[in-house]
Amino acid sequence: MGLRVLAAMSGGVDSAVAAARAAEAGHDVTGVHLALSANPQSYRTGARGCCTVEDARDARRAADVIGIPFYIWDMAERFARDVVDDFVSEYAAGRTPNPCVRCNEKIKFAAVLDRALALGFDAVVTGHHARLSDGVLRRSVDAGKDQSYVLAVLTGKQLGHAMFPLGDSTKAQVRAEAAARGLSVADKPDSHDICFIADGDTRAFLAERLGAAEGPVIDALSGEVVGGHQGAYGYTIGQRRGLALDRPSADGRPRYVLSIEPVSNTVTVGPREALKVGSITCARPVWNGPVAAPVEPRACTVQLRAHGEVYGCRAQLTGDTLHVELGTPATGVAPGQTAVLYDGDTVIGSATISAAA
């Protein structure tokens, strides 16, 4: 007997095919599009977003083709508070957030799932590229499109009410299936940018909300002021371009952002080798895998950014703090990013990076 499921339909090809597969599997499917912007024209268009008028129309057309009921839920206020405001405040605090992680955590699998369960639905279906079996989250068969990283913040209970029908298919297979089903979004391009920053200029977006705040750029090796900035929030750890330094380094090599200090409004730069870290401390751990939390050191792998490199490591939980010792040094590790632990292709858990050394 099929389940009563709610299909979150962004207006893109992935969520449309996921909804179609759920319906074909015999589930009682209702489509819902999340209106995430109070002013949809200000959000990114022409690609897979979540929140534009164009996306809402594409989602409705897909639901009509599939033959399922369709509704639009206004989540703009919740999205602004839990994702956009969080994004701004994290940067203001010198951290580097991932808004897609936060959206999955706070919107798609908190606000939406809570409402779906209250309305009598059994599960929420999305078009994420990840595999889910018996509540265990695993990587997609399409490594290039795998989204298990941005889903790893979900709790075991949330995963127990989730369905990801696309995990066993490549993106090319999903597009071909969409075309065969007569879905007009079959060739709609993916988006790789933040949906609520229409022009992709994160620094300008933050400056508009946080204001200009002049401060120094300091060379880590010499201790000298080598430039200035209009707001430390406009920089990220590992950044090389756009530093606008007044003088080159003594050895002529490029300099990278090594640290961001919001209290003193200071950006520190230095050589690439100074970016290397071997030890990471993380807060707010979530254990959602098939193995217990590692109260003793556990050998596993860790991914530190979406579609980023995977590192061998030893992880250990002490109280509410996760310590990760990397087998090989990583670069560009910034507080605020998510660290996701894997056993092979299976997610063990996740935590938010608070410090690295």
UniProtKB/TrEMBL annotation:
Q: Does the keyword Cytoplasm apply?
A: yes
- Main function: Catalyzes the 2-thiolation of uridine at the wobble position (U34) of tRNA, leading to the formation of s(2)U34.
Q: Which Pfam families match?
A: tRNA_Me_trans, tRNA_Me_trans_C, tRNA_Me_trans_M
SUPFAM superfamilies xrefs: Adenine nucleotide alpha hydrolases-like
Record InterPro entries: MnmA-like, MnmA-like_C, MnmA-like_central, MnmA-like_central_sf, Rossmann-like_a/b/a_fold
Give me the reactions it catalyses. Answer: S-sulfanyl-L-cysteinyl-[protein] + uridine(34) in tRNA + AH2 + ATP = 2-thiouridine(34) in tRNA + L-cysteinyl-[protein] + A + AMP + diphosphate + H(+)
Q: What is this protein called?
A: tRNA-specific 2-thiouridylase MnmA
Q: Which domain of life is it from?
A: Bacteria
**GO CC terms for this protein?**
cytoplasm
Positions of the record's site feature: Interaction with tRNA? H128, Q337
Q: Which GO terms describe its molecular function?
A: ATP binding; tRNA binding; tRNA-uridine 2-sulfurtransferase activity
- Annotated region (Interaction with tRNA) at 145-147
What GO biological process terms are annotated to this protein in UniProt? tRNA wobble position uridine thiolation
According to its UniProt record, which residues of this chain constitute the active site?
C103, C195
Q: Which UniProt keywords apply?
A: ATP-binding, Cytoplasm, Disulfide bond, Nucleotide-binding, RNA-binding, Transferase, tRNA processing, tRNA-binding
Reported EC number(s) for this entry are: 2.8.1.13
Q: What class of enzyme is it?
A: transferase
Coiled-coil segments = none
The yes or no answer to whether the keyword Protein biosynthesis is present is no
